[in-house]
UniProtKB/TrEMBL annotation:
Polar residues bias spans: 1-35
Compartments in which it is found: Nucleus
Segments of this protein annotated with the region Disordered: 1-44
Protein name per Swiss-Prot or TrEMBL: BED-type domain-containing protein
Domain named BED-type: residues: 42-98
GO molecular function: DNA binding; protein dimerization activity; zinc ion binding
Complex formation: Homodimer.
GO cellular component: nucleus
A Pfam family: hAT-like_RNase-H
Source organism (scientific name): Gossypium anomalum
InterPro entries: hAT-like_transposase_RNase-H, HATC_C_dom, RNaseH-like_sf, Znf_BED, ZnF_BED_domain_contain
PANTHER family the record matches: ZINC FINGER BED DOMAIN-CONTAINING PROTEIN 4, ZINC FINGER BED DOMAIN-CONTAINING PROTEIN RICESLEEPER 2-LIKE
Lineage: Eukaryota, Viridiplantae, Streptophyta, Embryophyta, Tracheophyta
This protein's UniProt keywords: DNA-binding, Metal-binding, Nucleus, Transcription, Transcription regulation, Zinc, Zinc-finger
Nucleus recorded as keyword: yes
Amino acid sequence: MSTEPTSIEGSVTSPTSIDSENSGVGASSQANVTTGKRKATPQRSEVWSHFTKIINSEGASKAKCNYCQKEFCCDVKKNGTGSLKYHIGSCKKNPSNVVDPSQGQLVLPRKGVEGGEGHLSTWRFDQEACRKGLAQMIVIDELPFKFVESEGFKKFMFVACPRFHIPSRTTMTRDVYQLYLDERVKIKQLLRSSCSRVCLTTDTWTSLQRVNYLCITAHFIDNDWKLNKKILNFCPISSHKGESIGMVIEKCLLNWGIDKLFTVTVDNASSNDVAIGYLRKKFNPRGGLVQNGKYLHMRCMAHIVNLIVVEGLKEMNKSVERVRGLLDMWNSTYLMLDTAQNFERAFERFEEQDTNFRAELERGEGWPSVNDWTNVRDLRDFLEHFYEVTLRISGTSYVTSNNFFDELSEIDILLRDAQLNSNFDFNVMAIKMKEKYDKYWGDIDKMNLLMFVACVLDPRQKLKYLEFALSEMSSSEKASEMMQKLKESLYELFDEYKPSLHSTCSQSSVSTHVSLGEPQQKMKRRMQALYKKRELEICGEDKTSELDKYLAEANEEFVEDFDILLWWKVNSPRFPTLSKMARDVLAIPVSTVASESAFSTGGRVLDQYRSSLTPKIVQALVCTQDWIRKSSSQEDIKKIEEQIQELDKIENDSSWNASEPTLNS
């Protein structure tokens, strides 16, 4: 005999209810003592406005949906209301979830919103699309996962879109990781479709959790001649040893399916020499390197510039020391001097109000005089050039390799002029800086010649400009020797990019037979190939290579807004082989700021309030933000300036000198 489920209001009651007529006080007390049960508490969750609590035939408590009649477990001690909340948002018979697919709302996207500006489109509520957009907001704005459970966000969403079912922090974590996996597939497809080689930058960082992370960033120019910077890995590393770093990089490239490696830009830590040697040994047998990995190792120009400046500041005169005593919290000497020189009068006024201020400084280096402030301003103007050079070479949204030699020559001129300065302190400082400059850039054999090749591949410079600049920077004999080595390397590299003789012959040997069903366009191409073959038989092969033709043409004018990638995109049909070489060379980053800037993001993601995030989620957050965030040029400059301040901390790092490169690789 079947029993109908019993509907229950508020809570499940006993099958034998207390007699309602027995309303006396004694009777009530007797009933309470007999049953031993407290008064049932009413249901407070909002889900019970969509469900009815019942007891099924087996005596189990169930929650029946008021719309689709589906039953769910709702035992107070065993089950929560999470599944009920999820069902409310997904129930197809819930009136709040019913969407008319034939009806859409017209919207006009605003400025800065993905989808363009001024393009009219239709909008329909989509729970999954809203969840994806929420995951993107969490990643881009670096919000904690618990943000979705905050009271203010829930109130806002109830006003803005009441139909949106807000996921929990656990669900949002899964959504963010799924977004990472989806975007990773897109980046893989982009890398697979690109015919160019990949350049890498890499560096290590230690988080608040004392976990060592290795960031690997890929730089390449795609088929549309757009420069791409993509963080491939932000993963933990067990050791800072060179071989361990090399193994992690190799594993990363294999996972991404990258087998064509061009350069790896690293800082001046000696362990990086070992890592580069390991990669050269592993990728050479696979044919993934150019010139057997001869140009694989690229030293970070920003770090070398910093070493040069630090060497000069060791000879800092008393004027700077006295001003530094006013603002001893600054890590960057240039930024400190730039700020302090604006507050000369403020310090004098502060002395009038606090008599102990000057007395305290007198016990140290002394109170800065008028002459001291003059020396400080001169030094500030001198260091400003190096600061601006570092900013220019640290960009990631534009090509930097073609400007390497230009920046190099500017530093050389600055140091030569400083040695002729009448100020003795400037002379001593410039001599020390020039010695450090010559250690890294004084011998062409110690430098990566691809930086000079990048200068040649700039149509504004070519060999003519390079030859002139070298003759101005060094003796004619040394300049001639450097130009000879550069030309040999340039033509060797071009020969490696030229198609093989077999493929050239197979393209030129065209059959004279044309089938009747062949399209007209293909017939025309056959006729053109036959004509070229006939010309070769009569006049012989044109021995002038693409490289010779390119170098023989007049240089482009020096203009500020010259777009070198656009020039090569337009002229690639004229120089098909040389343009392939240019795509690889121009993609080389001359500094490691691209990878180091990811540590700023990692520091914000792993702050003191979110130190429990796993390395898996940290990598998903850092990489996904890099992939989906559209940074403007102003944001790029701001990030560079933040990173420069981090680089300037090297001044106070006593262990830095021990990590200088050996210059033997």
